[in-house]
Amino acid sequence: MKKSRTLFQYPNLLMLIGVWLGLAPTANYAQNAVVVPIETKNNALVLATDKANRLCITHFGKRLKNTADYAQIAQQHWNKDDNAGIYNAAYTSSGSTNLVEPALNITHADGNTSTELKYVRHESVQSDMNVVHTKIVLKDEIYAVEITLHYKTYANEDVVEQWAVIKNNEKGAIELEKYASANLYFAFENYYLTSYHGSWGREMKPEETLLTNGIKTLDSKLGARTNLFAPPTFQLSFDRPATEEEGKVLLGQLAWSGNFRIDFEMDSYHHLRLMAGINPHASEYPLEAGQEFTTPALIYTFSDHGKGAASRNLHRWAKKYRLLDGNGSRLTLLNNWEATYFDFDENKLTGLFKGAKKLGVDMFLLDDGWFGNKYPRNDDRAGLGDWQENVKKLPHGIGHLVKEATAAGVKFGIWLEPEMVNPKSELYEQHRDWVIRQPERPEHYFRNQLVLDLSNPEVQDFVFGILDNMFSKNPDIAFVKWDCNAVIYNAHSQYLAKTKQKQSKLYVDYVKGLYKVLDRVRAKYPNVDMMLCSGGGGRVDYGALKYFTEFWPSDNTDPLERVFIQWDYSYFYPAIATCNHVTDWSKVSIKYRCDVAMMGKMGFDIVVDHLSPNDLASAQKAITDYNAIKEVVWHGDLYRLSNPWEQPVASVMYVSEKQDKAVMFNYLVSNRFDFIYTIEPIQLRGLDPNKKYRVRELNVYPETKTTLDETAVYSGDFLMSVGYNPDVTLRRTSVVLEITQVN
Ligand code: DGJ
Prior knowledge:
Elements: H1 13-20, E1 35-39, E2 43-49, E3 55-62, E4 104-107, E5 117-126, E6 131-140, E7 145-154, E8 159-168, E9 174-186, E10 191-197, E11 205-210, E12 214-220, E13 233-238, E14 248-254, E15 260-266, E16 272-278, E17 285-287, E18 292-294, E19 298-303, H2 306-322, E20 333-335, H3 337-340, H4 346-359, E21 363-366, H5 397-408, E22 411-416, E23 420-421, H6 426-430, E24 450-451, H7 457-473, E25 477-482, H8 494-498, H9 506-524, E26 529-532, E27 550-551, H10 559-569, E28 579-582, H11 590-597, E29 601-604, H12 613-635, E30 637-642, E31 649-655, E32 661-668, E33 692-698, E34 713-715, H13 716-721, E35 734-741
Parallel strand pairs: 20-21, 20-29, 21-22, 22-25, 25-26, 26-27, 28-29
Antiparallel strand pairs: 1-2, 2-3, 4-9, 5-6, 6-7, 7-8, 8-18, 8-19, 9-16, 9-17, 10-11, 10-13, 12-15, 13-14, 14-19, 15-16, 23-24, 30-31, 31-32, 32-35, 33-34, 33-35
Helix pairs in contact: 4-5, 7-9, 10-11, 11-12
């Protein structure tokens, strides 16, 4: 590992004094150390045993040309004080000589709380040219606990998935108090963490901070909808803050849809320890003799060429390996949520189907409010849980709507919120025992609702049944919007109480229960498009996105706000997964709204008949143009060109794999006098310098003309070195450009 720079950062004072007194430093590395390199195309994480047979991290960063060289790294480090082999442990345990933040904390069957892990064996299995799965087994020499560290590498994408399996081979039950997925160790000059926070309508607000001594913790304890407080997602720049094009940066995420905790601890060598996993808060997890616990994975990619390269790697990985149908196609849609809220009936809806067709989208999505009879869902205070069509609003049922939509020439999709219940519902009356609530305390509601107890297998069956019934009765349903609007208050499970299990399992078993349901849904209905939604972007992570084709980033659809929200999501998620809808949230022009929505998976949430003729023509044109470029947006590479947090114009582009087609989106995000037009050209990225391109403006508003010379031909070299001025002004607040190779 690279040595820390300043004298004061040499922490092993004892050793220095020893050297000064003429004592030779004792090496803590072994001559015959076992060295396990976890390599991707450009990077390596190197693990090696020390003299005490502990597994340590000796390198994180650039991959070396000769694998044999990894064995020599440990000898170059003089961290030989009492912390040697502990700070940089591959999976830090607790209760004996470790005094820093652990990855693992266990109470053994006899009540003892000490664990010390030693290396036992490892193996690597290559499943194809790109993917290698390495397993390293560690054991305690006194207590029969076995930890297997898993590292799955995706070479070309430079992505690692890292998790742990904890096996209890003791005679009785043990208790897991902390059980991180991953433990990492970095040795650089400085560490800059970008984390995200937010609340409803304000998702993914970034914050960059220089990490100092002590621990910085990212966490959420909301149970469900955890991102409402913070997502399990971060960027970590090394040495200095990375930019789009330069610098060392790691993008990471815990792929888990529940409570999480990610600790960044600076040690006394000025090295950084990272522990990421399920939040141990109120979540001690018992493990019976013979049982094992598999943690969720930490997913990360590292680049020493800036954030742009890192996020393109993550996008490629997500599309190929994680997101459901990541390389497929998606449906453009018209949603009725903001168009009608709860106020609709069959006639109104069939009218909207025609609007969808007129607009030119693929599908109509029926949102909240279609169900509940004893307690009709006419607002958010009643009906949730009673998944029968409301006979007043929909006398002929969903089947009729599917037929009507098909007759109007569009597909049909439906909104569900299957994990939740209003206390004013038949479900609540019949199954209070299925609800997460403290039996002795007053109920406390989030959006007038409570969360169903997914740790209970009966509840899992019920939730699966909602989707199963819907699809069996209406096999032509093309899309589901799966919503989740409440956090977990009063975390108590009657099921766990009845089955004499510990209440502290609830937060974990809730998420496991959710994944079990989703596994069943996908086993039976592998192809239906599903949107992951949670009162906006309250649940977006790669644990859940395995089951979903796309996600809803935020209920905030103000296009100006959206430029920022989409910008920050774009570091982690590909455009094909990011649903952007045109709504009436702001008075900004329909063109600007459409242009912003085009930068992902496009949808609408408006009453088409309320549009003026020109606005209608503009929206129709936006869809036609979108259909022409969506392949590039969905499957191309993303380049962020101009940052809205720093510049008056936000600019991003997508480039096809063959570099023959690109799309550039430009949005004015400031009204300040000095900033009302693009003075300088913006340098494009990702093109072939040797190819020639023509630039054409898309989605030009009816009865206006582009100000650009569309006949000019530019070399890729010119466009990337000099740049191109999209002529963004107060009259042209958003400009979408198609860049096409000319032969
Ligand atoms: C929250 C979602 O984010 C909205 O889009 C909408 O579906 C409402 N729920 C419906 O209650």
